[in-house]
Amino acid sequence: MHEYLAFPSQANDSVRSVSAAHSAFHELSKDFVVIGHSQGGGAACAVAQKGGTSLIPGYHGAVAVSPYTNFMKEQGPNGALAAAAMCRSIASVYPDFKLEDVLNPEGEIPVKTVFELGMGSASALALFYGSNPVKPNRKKTSI
Fold first, then answer.
1. Beta strand 32-37 with 59-65: parallel, antiparallel or unpaired?
2. What pLDDT score was predicted for residue 90?
3. What is the end-to-end Cα distance of the chain in Å, rounded?
């Protein structure tokens, strides 16, 4: 399963990738910055947080472009699509999880359609446009 928004893990992976690059290409400078967009922007923020609590040799800062850090606060179709994707992941780990724990009836139909047809994100976004399929009390679930 992809570690989407698992920022501490992504910070560690980013820092370790610099070490690996230095091992493979000795001519690289030991100095580096981290830049990321969207989810990568969140990962860049996580590297900055890591750099604030521990020494990262050669690290000089981060540039986070449109960091995506908390989809639960996202409104509109993007947040709905993120919640739908999360529902599928949660259901794969917790068989007792039910879509209706997170989604209202308006949201269940497009989510089931996305899953059944294996739709890509651009097509799926169209199904959620103009709706708010996520329940306001979604943090209280059966799991």
1. parallel
2. 77
3. 19
Given a contact cutoff of 8 angstroms between Cβ atoms, the answer to whether 71 and 82 are in contact is yes
Structure token pair of residue 101: 């724990």
CA 98 from centre of chain:
21
Query: d(Cα 37, Cα 138) in Å, to the nearest integer?
Result: 28
Q: Which residue reads 């919640």 in tokens? A: 83
Contact 68, 96 (CB under 8 A): no
DSSP-derived secondary structure letter, 30: S
The pTM score is 0.59
Burial category of 102 from C-beta neighbours within 10 Å (exposed 0-12, middle 13-18, buried 19 and up): buried
Q: How far apart are CA 35 and CA 42, in angstroms?
A: 10
Question: What would the pLDDT profile of 9-25 be if each residue is shown by its tens digit?
Answer: 889 999 999 999 999 99
